[in-house]
Structures are given as structure tokens and as C-alpha cells.
């Protein structure tokens, strides 16, 4: 049976447990942090991992695009093309959600006949060189902020090179 006194005891128990929890949290934060506000707090005890924080920067290797294209496999690029074909075609003058990619390697940026570009691409490049295509395919929105292309990109450099080699086979 649940009477008023029993209900009061249950609510009081939950409130007491919450108070103990909050006091314990406050005590732990006080012991661990020294300093001002939460944003300015400094850790009192730091666990050394043996890594230097300054050495954690990513080293970006220079890519020789001529060598990259020489070693690229166009047939493997055809498999990568499957990710593009939903929005692009390889026939001149036929656009879908994206512009046609026939003769794209070496073509001026933003000149696919009949396609309305967002303008973001013209701000970062003039010609679709191998290097520009390589960086655009890696991260379209990062390379050309404001582009309307919704593709996330290809993270593997070999896949990008293979795709560019495949696209280069559809050139005049």
C-alpha cells in the first residue's frame, strides 16, 4: 500500500541520492581542475602518453600528378565511375543533376553546355587540370566551398587517380 508517508520517503530518497551525486561530481571537478571558469580550467593531473603535441600535425606528401596518372588504372576507374553516374554522364551536351563529364580533363571550369553552375567552382580554378580534379574529387565542398555538388568525395588517392584516368579516356 502506498500512502502519503511512503511516497514522501521515496521522493526524499531520490532527492538525497541526487544531492550526493551532485556533491560528488563537484568534489571530483574541484580536485581535477584548477583555475577559473569551465572554459579556462587547467588539468591538475595529466597522463603522459609519450607523444609530443606539436608532432601530431599531419604530414601532407607532395603528389606528382604525372607519375600518378602513369600508374593509374582506367579499368579500376570505371568501377569508381559507378559512384558518379547517378548525377553525371560521359556524353557531350547531356546533363543530369551534374554537368556532363565528356572531355572534362583540360576543359575550362563551368562551361558545360546547358548546365547552370553555382559559381563556387570558378572562384577556385579556371581549368580542370589533373591536379584540380584530384583535389575536387577528394572533398568537393572543402575544395570549392559553396559548390552545389553533394558528393562526399573519394578519400583513397589511388581511387581518385584511377577515376581521373578513366575520365581522361573520354577526351577529344
Automatic annotation (TrEMBL):
InterPro entries: Cyt_c-like_dom, Cyt_c-like_dom_sf, Cyt_c_1A/1B. Residues 72-171 form the Cytochrome c domain. PROSITE patterns: CYTC. Keywords: Electron transport, Heme, Iron, Metal-binding, Transport. GO terms for molecular function: electron transfer activity; heme binding; metal ion binding. This is Cytochrome c family protein. The lineage of its organism: Bacteria, Pseudomonadati, Pseudomonadota, Alphaproteobacteria, Rhodobacterales.
